[in-house]
Amino acid sequence: MSEQAHVARTLADHLPILVVLVPFLAAPMIVLLGSRILAWIIAFSASLTTVFIAILLLLQVHEGGVISYHIGGWAPPMGIEYRIDAANAIVLLLIAAIGTIVLPYAVRSIRHEIDQKHHTLFYTAYMLCFTGLLGMVATGDAFNVFVFLEISSLSTYVLVAMGAKADKRALSAAYNYLIMGTIGATFFVIGIGFLYAGTGTLNMADIASYISANGADRTIKTAFAFIMVGMGLKVAIFPLHQWLPNAYTYAPSAVTSFLAATATKAAIYVLLRFMFSVFQPDFLFEMNAIKGIMLPLALVAMFVASLIAVFQTDFKRMLAYSSIAQIGYILVGIALLSTTGLSGAIVHLFNHGITKAALFMAVGILVLRSGSSFYARIAGMGKIMPFTSFAIVLAGLSLIGVPGTAGFISKWILVQAAIEQGWWPIALAIVASSLLAVIYVWKVVEVLYMKQPAEGLTRKEAPLSMLVPMWIMTLATIWFGFDTDLALTAARSAADGLLNGFTMAGGH
Amino acid sequence: MDTNTAILLTMIIPAAAAAGNLLLRNHANLRDWMTLSAAVATFSCVLVILSNVGSSTTTAYELFEVFPGLSIAFNVEPLGLMFAIIASGLWILTHIYGVGYMRGNKEEHHARFFASFSLAISAVMGLAFSSNMFTLFLFYEIITLSTYPLVTHKGTPEALRGGRTYLGILMGTSIALLLVGIVWTYTATGTLDFTQGGILQGHISGWMVPVMLGLYAFGIGKAALMPFHRWLPAAMVAPTPVSALLHAVAVVKAGVFTMLKVGIYIFGIDFLAETGASEWLMWLAAYSIIAASIVAMTKDNLKARLAYSTISQLSYITLGMALATSMGALGGGVHIAMHAMGKITLFMCAGVIYVVTHKTNVSQMNGLGRKMPIVYISFLVAALSIIGLPPLGGSVSKHLLLVGAADTGQQIMYWVLMLSSVLNIVYLLTIVGRGFFATSDDLQAGEAIKVPLLLWVPPALTAAGCVVLFFYGHGLEQFLMPIVGAAH
Q1: Which of A16, A297, A437, B484 could covalently link to A69 via disulfide, CB atoms 3.0 to 4.6 Å apart?
Q2: Which residues contact B330 (CB under 8 A, 6 or more apart)?
Q3: What pairs with residue B72 in β-bridges?
Q4: Residue B227, Cβ neighbours under 10 Å: how many?
Q5: Does residue B117 contact residue B251 with C-beta atoms inside 8 Å?
Q6: B386, B428 in Cβ contact below 8 A?
Q7: What does the pLDDT look like over A228-239, one tens digit per residue?
Q8: What CA–CA distances, in Å, run from A271 to A225, A235, A264, A323?
Q9: Nearest beta carbon to residue A419 from set B171, B175, B187
Q10: Is residue A433 part of a domain?
Q11: Which of A408, A414, A493 to mutate against chain B (most B CBs within 10 Å)?
């Protein structure tokens, strides 16, 4: 990449901001128009547009370049900068793609789960959440991250609370999430405040160059701690995960599918960005925060959360705990602090996103017929909804990490990374925790196929508008089990960039 | 037809048959004929490959690359080709037998049953032709998953428990141990291609070699090496055609086949011999041989007894590899064929007895041999082959293994094999003895029990196969020679 994009001349140069702006403008339009059908059309076309933009962006930075976009033409560090590199381009694509695929699914799903008068509100909140997640990932300005974090969080509380029609506990789950999320955001903004106090700038690259030039004083170290904890809450790093199981369980299915695949992933990306691009890895070594705190917590998450998942009796809740465990894998990859480990983490972030989206969508479909996702209620659904149940088996295999699925690829890279470093216990921990995944996935398979369905249920599949998006995600988990080019190449250049600095454009 | 197309077809045809079974769920006859023709077509493809290349090894045919340097790729080499011939050939007979069994025994869900069965065969073909460990691992896991519905076919709590043990051990060992071994190998050597003489030499040394071997030996749970053997008796809750083809031939042989592949092409026989890394495995295999035989003697349930017999016989093959001599490895390879032919006959006979009389325990089978002589004679022939008496196939491989054991100077292994034969006589021939000579109260004297044609012909044919294999035993040995680097 050359020194382009200082001055945006064509529409193509505006892509980094458009990816955020399109859904952001769609949100008020939906409120103003107020029609359910129009709302969906606007939301869907907006999100589809972001997918195209995300693809274009990824193509530009796929091999390791950087796009620096200056909002309003104001050069950083004065103006706000958006930075697109291989690492966030792939996260942007993940968010955009999942946000888009969930929308057709949402039409029928929310008809069952949300009051009709709230439907336009749903699409508005969905678009805002979508905007927030994309913005968090795209921006290169530390305070801007906080703004988008809040946009996504506030709309997420609304979305979770919308599950109240099906189960009133959605309200307390949303309230709980609101409290925890606000604490997290507060920690985060305090951290940003310290950073600003310590360095005098809010531009991430600028902060980075200040720290590498002047070293880290106590203010900056404190900032690091606050930011880690604040973002850790959004990521649901064990033991800051308390909000997650209830929020995922009681939110409407479409919301859970979207959030599980994207929200924690965006937060992980921000965490990565702060750890490697803002604070220097050398600084991190000094802090020993990663090996002393993050790695042990990640390992605990892998086992404790998996074990809790094994003993769940509600499918949706089981998947929520499994998410906490899988986040542990990603953090282990990060904690290995090697190119392989980091690319394993990024690939797993991607692969786990699509796997979980498929599974949560499938749960939503089962609930259409069964009324709830308790094992007792979904017993024998293999006979009632054969296509959905089979998709659950396939996506479940990806969750375990069986060869031929996306989950296998990331597990392979993570194990390889651990062995490369000679960290044998970590390699064994990764595979041992997969064994717990075998148990919790297989419990569901037995429930679906080996139990008798409830009286009176006859074989009837869900509408195609739900089946097709769910199967697209399921087939994607198989596809990315063989074609690793997209995910792996991007992940490798992302990991290289994070560890060694991206080959620059934008002039620092 | 060129070889690469034929290789693909051996996987595509059974997979298509699996899909066809599900689509034609309501057309029993059409469905069963379709599967039969698929089985014949698959076997023909394997024969085409045989006629194209004989026992020479082809270069890898890369389907696509998953990681840089790691591909889903296939090639032909003698051991895999032999395995493919056995599995696809016996599929034809087992399918015929299976149709007779499933109908005669009034089992349900035929379409699902034969679909899973075909899918498992498709994966076995993929495994047999894998040209690297990565590809092999993929198919190894598909075999586990596609046979799970067969094990739990009856849907009873017992079947469910059996299925849990089955999946738990096979998947557990493969993820926790085998995967680690494979990734380690890849990290150390940068390749996973099956290469003559092995790939590990010079990359790992000292204590790492036996540890790595341990990851493989225990990780390949399908080889049923003790203490990871319990899945095999657990799998016996499946309908008998499954036990016959999959748990005497395809699945377990996939395990020992993988074991041989790892020994010969990943470690290299010479490397194992130099480092002495496989010595512990030799002792463990010997222990498995004897211990499983002793357990088999205590089992009254016929299928359980045969299952433990299989565990014992599989360890012959592991032992052959662990001896780390050409003769041992060759004997192990030949034993795959010999044991397959014998054990499938025994299981099919057990299935016939069950369908016709609903008897499962050896102690209930007094005098049955006089009622169904052909079935019992087939059983006898196969049992003698397993014991290792000429002129039956089993004697060829046992001879090779004995020579292999003598080569290493391991006198004890020689006696282990001999002792095992004695134990085989005890637990197999007593069944035949009871059948012919013991008397029973609940059997009427006189007329024979009528056994449906579809049920008695396949075991009679495989029993005859045991005899034929004796005469082709030397040919088979010659055929497999290239795997240990020896000229024809």
Answers
A1: A16
A2: B320, B400, B404, B477, B480, B481, B483, B484
A3: B64
A4: 11
A5: no
A6: yes
A7: 899 989 888 888
A8: 12, 8, 10, 17
A9: B187
A10: yes
A11: A408
Contact B183, B152 (CB under 8 A): no
Residues from chain A that touch B169, judged by Cβ atoms under 8 A, are: none
Number of domains in chain A: 1
The residue range of the domain holding A428 is 288-499
- DSSP one-letter code for A311: T
Residue A429, min C-alpha distance to chain B (Å): 9
With contact defined as beta carbons under 8 Å apart, do A246 and A176 qualify? yes
The two three-digit tokens of residue A391, written as one number: 């998709």
Give the position of tokens 């290792």: B388
Taking CB atoms and an 8 Å limit, are B187 and A416 in contact across chains? yes
Q: How far is CA B8 from the centre of its chain?
A: 22
* Chain A environment of B167 (Cβ under 8 Å): 438, 442
A234 three-class SS: helix
Strand pairing class (B61-67; A81-85): unpaired
Which residues on chain B are in Cβ contact (under 8 Å) with A435?
172, 175-176
Return d(Cα A89, Cα A462) in angstroms, integer. Answer: 34
- Three-state SS for A134? helix
Please check whether residue B233 lies inside any domain of the structure. no
- Answer whether residue A148 is part of any domain: no
CA distance A153 to chain B (A): 37
Q: How far is A134 from chain B (nearest CA, A)?
A: 29
Per the structure, the count of domains in chain B is: 1
Q: The domain containing residue B354 runs over which residues?
A: 278-488
In order of A425, B200, B322, the CA distances from B204 in angstroms are 19, 6, 18
Please indicate whether, in this complex, the C-beta atoms of A442 and B142 are within 8 angstroms of each other. no
* Residue B455 belongs to some domain of the structure: yes
CB A3 within 8 A of CB A505: yes
What is the token pair recorded at B466? 């045991």
Query: Tokens in use for A436?
Result: 């717990």
Instruction: Say whether the ipTM exceeds 0.90.
Output: no
Confidence of residue B444 (pLDDT cuts 50, 70, 90): low
**Structure confidence by residue, pLDDT tens digits, A251-275:** 998 999 999 889 888 999 998 888 8
At B193-225, the pLDDT tens digits run: 888 888 888 888 888 888 899 999 999 988 888
Residue whose C-alpha is closest to residue A504's, from A299, A205, A301: A205
CA–CA gap between residue B357 and residue A498 (Å, rounded): 70
B53 located within any domain: no
Task: Tell me if A250 sits within 8 A of A167, measured CB to CB.
Answer: yes
Torsion of CA B339, B57, B85, B421, to 10 degrees: -10
Whole-number Å distance between alpha carbons of A262 and A270: 12
Tell me, yes or no, whether B12 lies in a domain.
Answer: no
**A76 vs A140: CA distance, rounded Å:** 10
In this predicted model, what pLDDT tens digit does every residue of A433-457 receive, in sequence order?
Answer: 999 999 999 999 988 888 887 777 7
Please give the distance of CA A63 from its chain centroid, rounded to a whole number.
23
Contact A480, A406 (CB under 8 A): yes
Give me A327's structure tokens. Answer: 């986040």
Q: What is the mean pLDDT of residues B271-299?
A: 88
Q: Which residues of B touch A419 (CB under 8 A)?
A: 180, 183-184, 187
* Cβ distance of B72 and A482 shorter than 8 Å: yes
Determine the distance in angstroms separating the CA of A55 from the nearest CA of chain B, rounded to an integer. Answer: 22
Residues of A in contact with B137 (CB under 8 A): 403
Whether B214 and chain A come into contact, CB under 8 Å, resolves to: no
DSSP single-letter state for residue A497: H
CB distance A46 to A131 below 8 Å: no
Determine whether the interchain pair B175/A438 forms a contact, defined as Cβ–Cβ distance below 8 Å.
yes
User: Is it the case that residue A506 has pLDDT exceeding 60?
Assistant: no
Q: Give the closest-approach CA distance of B173 to chain A in angstroms.
A: 9
Strand partners, A141: A203
At residue A67, φ and ψ (nearest 5 deg) are -110, 125
